[in-house]
Amino acid sequence: MLGLLGLRIFEATAANIADLGEEHGHRVLRVCGKGTKIVLVPLPPAVGRAIDRAVASRVRGPILLNGRGARMDRHAATRRLHRLAESAGIQIARAHPHMLRHSSRPVSTLALTCAMSRSPPVTPIPAPRCDTTTLTNLDRHPNYILAACMASGT
């Protein structure tokens, strides 16, 4: 949720099962961001499957749980990130959940820049061509572009 959706840690940990829904054929997560701004974030298939595993058979409550079955907080998320990095053999000096948000920003920035019909920033990654309807069209949301890049390894 943090890396592929670009959510802040407080947005991910505050997400409830009731916030999951569907909009125009897309599975979405209703997120309350900074300043109580509500947005619908489309869920790429990989994120949807991960959320389904986290939710299991529960019908209400938080999406992310800590080891005791309570709502996960940012401290528990940091501990889990450290364990995952260690088990994967990744050595990062001060790993924290916000690092995952930063990892999603380059591709999302390119997609949004293109969507807003601005000149793309100087980058070795070619910006995809799209029109100005991208921001309102969930079919071409930056989350899908990022998920496709991550899946293809590029």
Give a description of the structure.
- The chain has a three-stranded antiparallel beta sheet with strand order 1-2-3.
- It has a single domain, classed as hpI Integrase, Chain A, CATH 1.10.443.
- It is built from six helices and three strands, in the order ααβββαααα.
- The protein is globular and about 40 Å long.
- It is 42% helix and 10% strand.
- About 14% of the residues have low confidence.
- With 154 residues, it is an alpha+beta fold.
Text of the CATH class = Mainly Alpha
Arithmetic mean pLDDT: 76
Rg result: 16 Å
- Structural class estimated from helices and strands: alpha+beta
Give the tally of β-strands. Answer: 3
Number of helices: 6
The percent range for helix content is 40-55%
Low-confidence stretches: 114-135
What's the number of domains?
1
CATH topology, by name, is hpI Integrase, Chain A
How would you sum up the global shape? globular
Q: What series of H and E elements makes up the topology?
A: HHEEEHHHH
The major β-sheet equals:
3 strands, antiparallel
Measured by DSSP, the beta-strand proportion falls in 5-15%
Q: What is the level-2 CATH architecture name?
A: Orthogonal Bundle
